[in-house]
Amino acid sequence: MVGLERGQILHSDAVILNRNKRPTGQGPSFIDTENVFAVDGRQPLYMIDSFVSANDSSWVYKAKDLTNKDYVAIKISKAGVYATKGTSDILELEAKTMAKLRRCRGVVYVRNLLRMGDGNRAIVMDFIEYPTLEDKINHLFSVESPIEDAELIKVVKEVSKTSEYMARFDLFHTDLKPGNIYLDPTYTLISDFGISTWVLQDRSMVPGESIYMAPEIIVSKGKVKPNLRSEEFVIAEIAYQMLTNDLIFKLRNKAGPEKVIRAMEEFSYLQLRDFASLEKRLGPRRAILVDNVLGKVLEKNPQKRYPGPVEFSKALEKAILST
Ligand SMILES: Nc1ncnc2c1ncn2[C@@H]1O[C@H](COP(=O)(O)OP(=O)(O)O)[C@@H](O)[C@H]1O
Ligand SMILES: [Mg+2]
User: Fold this and answer.
1) pLDDT per residue as tens digits for the range 110-155
2) CATH superfamily membership of 9-126
3) Which residues line ligand 1 (CB under 6 A)?
4) Of ligand 1's atoms, which has the minimum distance to the CA of residue 108?
5) Within 10 Å of residue 292's Cβ, how many Cβ atoms?
């Protein structure tokens, strides 16, 4: 399969998931496991509008749902990339994971999963008009203006709540990063569940090395399972990035995870963070408080961290709002 053209119509051979509207009564109440994957016989058609993004294994397009004229985002697998014998396509697992989170307000809503004639899968999601946190950080960096306290707190709290909600079902995203977080003013959304634990579990895979991953996860090469404290570490790194427009372990800009891990083993958070930039952003008093909170979460020893992201987010909020 090659890339798609504007105006091209997408047919599907099989509709695996189909629910165009988020069910009412949302919120972290229960997980919908029944009937989620039922084929309802309709064959929705989508018309490609524009290219959005690509990586090694998939493309993302903006498209129009021809049945109701809504815009959707369609993530389509590239042929052959995941065609391992006997395993279902990873994109299908990704969509099914998102489908089980349809009642969670902090997750991008998945509408549909299509099986195409060539065997590829396409995930159809709500099209999110809002920027990702990555877009926002880049923009703010270019205009040299800091992210507002209220927005920072909102993002950290909401992503933390979503992460803890998912953990109740033993699901960890493991790829949280600014590019997978969308700044919906109603509720911050996360997406891109391609390496989340349910997907990896099903394929007996170990997580790859993401530059935002907690050190104990990378070092253990799959032995330490992702957990609330490792997710908390990642959310704290993202918070630091929002505050300083910089990565906490600066090496991460250039070096691969191995070098980062070595640096993290040799040095502590106190040596690797840029306190001056926290101070510039927050003033001396708040910088010390916020630095203490971040230092606790970015401990190498997970036992010294807060028990989970929500407690961390509360401590961070308190430090930022202190006078
Ligand atoms: N539902 C969506 N609405 C709007 N843009 C999206 C949506 N899903 C993905 N994108 C865009 O495509 C990019 C890549 O999508 P993502 O699911 O993160 O895949 P990957 O990072 O694996 O390539 C996102 O960073 C975002 O810019
Ligand atoms: Mg992504």
Assistant:
1) 998 887 666 677 899 999 999 999 999 999 988 888 899 999 999 9
2) Phosphorylase Kinase; domain 1 (3.30.200.20)
3) 52-53, 55, 58, 60, 73, 75, 108, 125-128, 132, 179-180, 191-192, 194
4) 1
5) 11
